[in-house]
Request: fold
Amino acid sequence: MTRYIALIRAVNVGGTGKLPMADLRAMCVEAGFTRVETYIASGNVIFESESALSRVKAELEARLQAYAGKPVGVVLRTAAEMAAVLKANPFPKVEPKYTYAIFLDHRPPADALNKALGRDGEVMRLGDKEIFVHYPSGMGSSKLRIPAAKMGTARNMSTIAKLAEIAAKP
Reply:
């Protein structure tokens, strides 16, 4: 069994992209995943599956599309990968709520940071399959746009730490 963390794109507690975590948990159970647990109402679910990552992703995306009536992106990491993202944080001395990892399905292009627009003090670094960003004034007020991150989903380091902790539980 592999312990996975699924990060659902564009989920929030109200408005467009609304997905109650109880519904997300039920979808995962119906898909045959075990030890299903959600964390905060922003599309984070931890579970176990015997299936390969590609099959888990396809199964969850199909269920989310049926629920939402449109494609909903999912980025998956194993428990070990999530712990590695936390360890790879290039900004460990700044407040975790101001540092994000934008999770991608693939390695970001080497020139991804050069193509960023609207910079205003943000500092960026490439990770393995992530783009790390420190937003000194907070993500909410930032005008930063990173074209390579368009299909990704961001989580702050506080959330990443909690997801890694939950996923590491025996």
The beta strands are 2-8, 34-38, 44-49, 74-78, 99-103, 123-126, 130-134, 153-156. Residues 53-68 form the longest helix (16 residues).
